[in-house]
Design brief:
about 350 residues; alpha/beta; TIM Barrel; eight-stranded parallel beta barrel; three-stranded antiparallel β-sheet; 13 strands; about 40% helix; globular
Length: about 350
């Protein structure tokens, strides 16, 4: 079905096409995925997952379709990014398909309906099965961006399966400065204090565009501060060789060209953390082989989004089937057994 619809979707502005996709998912008419192969069941920071394939933040910014995406076969879904106050984001056009490169460039700027709306949506699904996390951002004009994350944690931590602190979007000026040593340590301390006794994992999502010392600094701050895991990585401001006419657009690059940089960042963080923190790998994952390579490089789970733009929802099932086959081929009894194996 997606093969037939793709030309029609690609004829539309990318944001319009995405809006129609969300509307279709909200009807609830899509068929449920087949049960997962038992070999794919795993644990991540205390979370029981039916499979390690997650939906990355950015697809469902406003917690509109998490259960629909779980029905499509994702092992976990991350909604957001959500900011304390609603914001329109950057001017359009701000989303570009680089078809020749199987890539996307976005400069959305944390456009979302705000934390209050997200909290209402999370409250509405309380008691339903499935792992649904919330990705928190900071408002562009916030005087104290760390305070925005504290606000988000206080409002959403008790309602989400996990919370992600997104300090790596390239589309909010100055946001990535929160990855620097002292600023990151302060942010983590405030976020962990805000979480208090709520038993919810907190992850930090980092950029792929880092210098060598940054991997150690960020890892040390996360471990010492009590963070439960890292998401490696966000979109990139770098521009590898690209063929599309949109290659010069500003914003974060995702999709196939990001894969080498994201893999390198994963390897650096796996070495820097020494297995002390679980890592979720993201960036350029589009096949079971991609997911398997990230797991063997040290990831406990993976996330994807841009690959769905080009391959459609059937990609999730194909990735899971291929991953299960690869695990069995190499003699692994579980996903966990393969983490960091090579």
């Amino acid at each position: 079905m997606f093969a037939a619809l793709r030309p029609l979707l690609f004829a539309l502005d990318p944001e319009r096409a995405h809006g129609l996709t969300i509307a279709a998912l909200r009807t609830g008419l899509l068929p449920a995925a087949a049960p997962d192969d038992p070999i794919l069941r795993t644990r991540l920071a205390g979370l029981d997952l039916p499979n390690p394939i997650g939906l990355a933040a950015g697809f469902d910014k406003d917690v509109l379709v998490p259960d629909a995406m779980l029905r499509l076969g994702f092992g976990f879904v991350e909604c957001g990014s959500v900011t304390p106050l609603p914001q329109a984001g950057n001017p359009r056009p701000r989303l570009f398909r680089l078809v020749e490169d199987k890539a996307v460039i976005n400069r959305m700027g944390f456009n979302n309906l705000g934390l209050e709306h997200a909290v209402v949506r999370l409250q509405a699904r309380r008691g339903r099965p499935g792992t649904v996390g919330i990705n928190l951002g900071a408002n562009k004009d916030a005087a104290d961006r760390s305070a925005d994350y504290v606000t988000g944690v206080r409002a959403a931590a008790a309602l989400a399966s996990y919370v992600t602190i997104n300090i790596s979007s390239p589309n909010t000026p100055g946001l990535r400065a929160l990855q620097d040593g002292a600023a990151l340590a302060d942010l983590i301390a405030r976020v962990v204090e805000a979480r208090g006794a709520i038993a919810v994992p907190v992850f930090v999502k980092v950029a792929p565009d880092l210098e060598k010392p940054d991997f150690t600094v960020i890892s040390r701050a996360a471990i010492d501060g009590g963070i439960d895991g890292l998401i490696v990585s966000n979109t990139s401001i770098s521009r590898p060789m690209l063929r599309s006419n949109f290659a010069a657009e500003t914003g974060g690059l995702s999709g196939a060209p990001l894969a080498p940089l994201a893999m390198a960042a994963l390897q650096h963080f796996a070495a820097a953390t020494g297995g002390a923190l679980p890592i979720i790998a993201a960036g350029g994952i589009a096949s079971g082989a991609d997911a398997y390579a990230r797991i063997r490089a040290g990831a406990s789970a993976v996330q994807l989004y841009s690959a769905l733009v080009y391959a459609g929802p059937g990609l999730v099932g194909r990735i899971k089937a291929d991953l299960a086959a690869l695990l069995r081929r190499d003699g692994f009894a579980s996903v966990a057994a393969a983490v960091g194996a090579g």
